């Protein structure tokens, strides 16, 4: 198993109990989560030495975020401590035609105000095999963008494979700002995860032969888009999840991967009911990284799909499944029969 | 926005946690609700000055019912205080083919024993635009029937538009008694809400050209029924919801409205899963009143349908949605995608 | 109504709240359950004088198991007290394609170490009409196998009808061991409940004309299997449930019964969502015994099917439904409409 | 152990979680309790065949009350079923100088409307050794007073020892009415439980030599009062608990008993913190009856004191302690050391 | 009853369940509270028309804070809506020698960034009798200090009585900054609430004849301090609570008031156990304002003491007691006997 | 900070919510704990590299125990995985004169059946400074006794300081058996923790000049006992906690330490209320080890006393306090004032 590093923000998630609305709630369920932290947890569950790099306050809320990671086996040695606040997101879980709602309260968190020189990059990347980040981290602040860039430079110095999840967040920046920051970072990226929307918003990428605004794209269109993305940015691989949203409780889900030569497509999962959608994309990234580190592309694709389908059935941000459990689903047992 | 008045009983609702059966429950979830109170909450949520008129004991259970209303913006200035008890209903939520169960324990509540002269009708209806009541209130007791009649007379004196939800409750009275009390009240009603069953039981109404007992009615039959109801009772409008019950968790839902000239029919919603069915009809009344106060009939119909479909996804009796949220659904987004 | 006796183990069930995973849980929901205890509860609910025979420690966890039975009307007069531990099973409830998981920790429980002479069989079977056991009890230990045999001998002495639920448990014994113990017990059995898999594993039964490993069997094949089982073991009746597993939340369900002459098949139920699958089979046995004690075979079959379909909607092991509720479903109302 | 019968009302108790106020509570904890039911539970815990006689509705709330009794070993064979409602009491638990509050909603309960001829008194009192009732039951209604009188007449016919807990409830009747009903019932009573206040209010009893309104009475005064009560009403024994109320959490507690010749006084308990005061007096009655049935007066006095002191540490109305646990405390271990 | 206005910040309070530590908590209890909001709730409970002035975001967390106020009768008409965040404080409740802990996360809240011209001061103070603020509000930001000053100027224009709770918060500002802002505001203040520490830190006040650092002050010393404070700042009244901290669960509590001529001292309360200390001081301010608006100084002093002693027994920030409940305690009943 | 190793069993603790009795509980709170695991958590909290050595099943309950340790910073690298069960203890928390109760169900746990050669002792003790075990581990089974002996031999080979907590458990072995196993292990022990009772039961130690059965011992007697223990077994240090049990909620607590020359005695703490007594002794061991590793004996004694006093205020087995928090209490602040 490999040393893997992810960098980003872990937030306090305050969610209403069950499917209560915000205005009805007399308590919030507490978990901690965030894109790259979720990826680290997935990788720790699959047996990797997964390090999550961030900055968190010294107080007990910061400590609780650290503990949430170490509880599930993520290495927290490189987490800087200081600053004032843990970023927060409030979550109201929807049902049927009522969508889930997220309210962010993450400005001025410790990681948003952290400096690149607060981290010992040489130690962080020594012997590492993979580095993963997302488009959320550089969007947090100018400092965080600088920090991300430094991490990428250092990762490449140490010969580490790099993946990015483009993940556009409209509450954090504009497309123009996103492209200004993100385009120059793409030179460090080996594996790009994101759909055509993210590519357009974050990278300013417009496929030549496809009208991405013409409603639902077919698989063919994705093939062309992925080829053009590879061409434009030099990615070794491009991957995306394809979600069909029927209701807050019922989605279709599959994975598409391009390795620069061939296209790989996973089985489609019909997920009903969805228990917790949040972290679905991150669990796909985590599954894909594990897959690419341990097996061929088709298997990686299936592993990532099954892993992330399972995430939708688990409360919280983290995908608390083992490699063994994912493989049972890869082998095709969707019957849900009781395991005694 | 308008001053709107509703009159009726608000009860303490004691429901089992999750889908536990009564005999399994070591605690009850507590909310307060009741037909006309639910309508008032809907209207307050849409921005109206909504007054709920009732009588509640001075003790803390009575106070909690008052607070439940003021918490969500309903005006409680005209709630009389006194008497001994808050009516109760016990609720067990069903699942799949197991139906939800309601046990009423509402006899001798403060409002059931209240007298018409305990309320300052002139203040209540001054500047009001709309008055809503249901067939439940006059069924509570002879006093409550008298009180309802007085309210209707006064509402008309002040030129207030009146709507009724016929709502037959077999535990409270017989069809014969219902018709004796309710038929004379129809002269004050502008907008009548109810289906053919309610009309038969509460008003003794039998459509000439339609066999209402021959199973499922088609839309055509409803058109004829509505025309005859208008004819028979002089209503300006007649409306009903059309529910298809597939299981305790899965219903179809749409709205039919007749304005004396034209018929309007909303989009059909497939609601799966249902979180809480109770108050579904009241949220339709609330949505319709708001719709008719602020837009044309077709829009009112769609607003009422979307609002009440959303209610089915919200725990408790009250429909805690904003006008903005309803309009998003009216515009057609049923995908349940996370709103960030 | 009849005196009915069941014999077996009742365990402490520790289940995660909602659909949380084991590693997320900071509390466990506590109920008590086990195959034959569940059958006794069903029968008590239908009005029978149902006795559950077992051994439980004197300490408070043992007492809590006794109380769980007496709470729902099961007679506990013949429960021996002593030994050290109550068997445990941990339950994690699945969702969608994630299966539920059971971890057993039941070795060395009081009943597993009990001796046949600790029970007053004459008192137990005096005036009894029916005795039910399952293939789980003799699998617990050599002592428990001996105890089961003694119970069967005594039941027959008192002219009691005997039913068995074959219920193979691979964590408790091997097919070889199961067959060594169970085959000699079949001479005492009147009604055998189990499918072709159980019959093969527990009884070493292989139908001549049917390939039970060739995927899904049709009803015809079951007819032949049942006829051969009757032939081979002398059962008066053979019955099984037929479960279609689409996901952890969605199953199809029906019942097949053979009385040595005719085949009876119940209506098929589409159960969605499933609230709690555990005890589904036991509630079928309970429903069938009640049915056979009180009505004809077709009615018994429908009663058993409706009763056990309802069980899937009820949290915990016990099927907390009345005869009246089952009959409403037998009559065909699956609409889930609120009962007021 | 003996057959013991108690008669009265068992109510649904709805209490706020922890020490929340009524107006803060979004859920109520649910237990069932009531003076004579609590006594029956105590006696079942000590090993007696304890029957509770009442009437409860057939619906599930009524059934839950029955189950609450059978769960803890009380015999429910003589509970009549019918009527509409289970009486309710709301409980808010106090802290420090804030008192606990009870709001009653018990009018028109099934037992309040029950008739004496709905019960098979011969079966009820056959072989019974003791009958216990309280001043609450005849206060419920004229019917309930009649019912109580009939029970007393029948108890005496069967030679059953009778105890009463005078228990004046000012919300249920006036002193004048209480005395009119209760005084004639005293001829059937062997053991009278109550303090000087209850005796004055319920029996119109005024001790000649003692000013009961002059603040705190000393033990001497109680001796005189008890002697006079015995004289006036012919009781064989008189007993009372003596409570010192320092705060909602801290009470002193002891027991005084007079057997017509001698006075017995228990050890004094300092109870801090009190977990749940409700049922404290009933647990004293239960302990006293058990004591008088099984040992001498001094021991009975100590048993009753220790048992009822322990009740104050147990949530709910019922005193869930075994004889063995009471005896450990009687022997003097108040250290609260962990029992491993 | 009077129109009373308070101005300040209401925060989301996230507290650990029971006495769990932060690092153990998987959920947070949610209430809303803050110094001046708490005062408004007290006054609404006593029957006043209490307005709370603040600014809150339009999103659902902001709305929940508004609802928390209207639920308990506070008028929210003058709450501005906008900005991004609701200030937060995390609370861990201590026990015995372990202190409670508060972690603030309130920077950049809507009210901290609000401008004075966002409020309609004329409407706010029209017909108002009293205005209350605290030293926390001007400490939030320069804008908030400006806003506070404007409110004071306007209050005085409308002839409103003004009270301040000095309340030094070391996390928000330094003594130097506090004095720079607060000293000029004292000219508008009629009633000053605060002890010698607050006076030194917030006002730079040093009594001439008393060494405030010499440990515990006696009542005499307070008399001198209050006289000097009146002299120095022109207050009409000065008041303080005197807390003795024995442990996290056990405090002594009394009130001292000076009306410029005489000193008034309340009864001392021994509070054990403390349920929730937060808001204790605010409930004293609320009780004092009500007392001074409705009765003489000695009575006001006793009312304030009893009201705030009771607050310590109530979960959450708000003092949910009625005038009637306070008066029972003023009359001296601290026995905590159950009120039936 | 130092590498510290502890060895023993970590159990699943199932405790009733609040102070409910076992027979009332519908759920159990879940934490994991055990003597030496608790010590490891204390040491990790104080900043040490604390390793806990045990064996746990591979299933999810075993994994949850591992996670509970890593969550709070304990190193789990040397935990063997395998076997069938996690030992369990049921806990009912007492109140006032009602004691807490523990029911053990720990036989045949993975660690009880583990062999010495399943652990890499060289890696475990490399660079370690301290090894701690208790008298519970060798009591689990013959294998566990062997394992403990091997660990001690290896610890001494690596020059590691060894401490033992004698901790006699009467449910696990007899005094004779304890002495047979434990006496030979004392040669490896540097620091012995235990009182005169444990010394008598576990070591067969009888002080010459002191009657340990004559009730409460004074400090002088302890001095003599400690001197004799040192003499008899060659300990470098002897220490004990001195608990005064007033009730389940109120204890006195202090620490006595003897370093072979001098006696050290900590301040006495009055703990009221106790939140959770379990792990009190372990937190004393953890505090003492930290104290002896970082400061002089008097300071170590005070640190251990304050740390373990604080444990009594924290739910669960683990002492979740930082060095900083302990030092605040050592400095004398027991006021429980809110820390903002």
UniProtKB/TrEMBL annotation, chains A, B, C, D, E, F:
Record key words, sorted: Kinase, Transferase
Keyword S-adenosyl-L-methionine: no
Pfam families: PfkB
GO MF term set: kinase activity
InterPro entries: Carb_kinase_PfkB-like, PfkB_dom, Ribokinase-like
Residue span, Carbohydrate kinase PfkB domain: 1-313
Domain of life: Bacteria
Family under the similarity heading: Belongs to the carbohydrate kinase PfkB family.
Protein name as annotated: Kinase, PfkB family
